Amino acid sequence: MMLRRIVQLFVGLALYGFSISVLIKAGLGISPWDIFHQGLGRLTGISIGAVIVGVSFLVLLLWIPLKIRPGWGTLANAVLIGTFVDLSMPLLPEAEGILWQIVFLAGGLFLLAVASACYLGAAFGPGARDGLMTGLARRTGWSIRLCRTLIEVTVAAAGWLLGGTLGIGTIAEAFLIGPLVQWLMPFFALPPRTTKPRTAEALYGQNAGGS
Q1: C-alpha to C-alpha distances, 98 to 13, 26, 86, 101, 171, nearest whole angstrom
Q2: Global pTM?
Q3: What residues does each domain of the chain span?
């Protein structure tokens, strides 16, 4: 069982990085955090994958005042997603024409949902950004939905000002990833060690809405 969890974690993280690349190549808008990563990369000249890794560790520093302890899966998340973005970006062509852009967007969103369910189901700890959201909710008493919204609106606005791609894909991800992950979780959630079922809410937080 442990071997399956480890394999599922790494497959999920690799697929997550690949799906980010697909969405970037679609050119129709990406997630709020990736808008920030893309904008910061354009400002600094650093690859988006390296920016993702760097921002992940900066966000982990914010866990300290929130008194959150990362799992080793959290550290794997911080390192591997950005690495796989940089590895896959040169392998993918730009989506040319609206038809291919839509195909890339739909495929990228589905792969992102599969990747999220895969690594969440392995239950080795949340990603840096997810932990920031849930930790802030615990410390403030605000809902996870409100914390997520405040964080993502802030990073999306900052990324857009830096030149990141905001578009219909951003909206589609906001509305579709949560339900898709919820639907896919039973296929990836491993048998629990307790009598409490592993749902998307249990692994990601109440009102799970993404990866």
Answers
A1: 28, 9, 25, 5, 17
A2: 0.87
A3: 2-204
